[in-house]
Design a protein that fits this description.
Length: 184
């Protein structure tokens, strides 16, 4: 069995032809031969081989018709006719794949851009997550009947203690504020 190499047009043609000859067409690799945007050109190349290889011709007709016909499938013949003037199918296949890859990349970038949230809530949540991820200290708050806390904006322990004291002055219902390392 020839080697299956998805980037190589000729290897995929060889692999697909051998699978058809062996009537072993139920594999991911065989399907993959036709799924690189250039499946029509793979079919055209196999039909061209059928012109000089009667065994492949019979195997292709048998595979496609499940033994009910000796004819090559019409869509494969159409693919061959459409590309009859193409002297180098591999070069055209490479060009087709590259064009589709460029289009897919462009579509991917457009989709990413379209998915970017523009609302204030989402942007606020992102800012909050960044703040938490970048925080070095957490200030734990305690009162007689509850507890809470927040991530300090300060980057030094001394500045975090000042931030905690300021918070206690501003909100006197909290009795204590303990500075801890964030993300322990």
């Amino acid at each position: 069995m020839p080697e299956y190499r998805p980037k190589s047009f000729q290897q995929r043609v060889n692999y697909a032809a051998q699978c058809i000859l062996n009537q072993q067409t139920r594999s991911r690799e065989f399907d993959g031969c036709f799924e690189m945007y250039d499946g029509e050109l793979i079919a055209a190349a196999i039909v061209r081989r059928c012109e000089v290889d009667d065994t492949l011709r019979a195997a292709l007709a048998n595979w496609q018709s499940h033994g009910r016909s000796s004819e090559i499938p019409a869509e494969w013949l159409e693919a061959a006719a459409k590309n009859k003037d193409v002297t180098n199918l591999a070069r055209k296949a490479r060009s087709v794949r590259q064009q589709h890859e460029r289009e897919a990349e462009k579509m991917h970038r457009t989709m990413q851009r379209d998915q970017e949230p523009e609302d204030e809530l989402t942007e606020g949540l992102r800012a909050f997550v960044r703040k938490i991820n970048n925080a070095r200290f957490f200030i734990a708050l305690e009162s007689d009947d509850s507890s809470s806390g927040f991530y300090a904006e300060a980057q030094t322990r001394r500045a975090a203690k000042i931030e905690a004291a300021t918070h206690l002055r501003k909100y006197p219902s909290w009795k204590t504020a303990t500075v801890r390392r964030a993300h322990q």
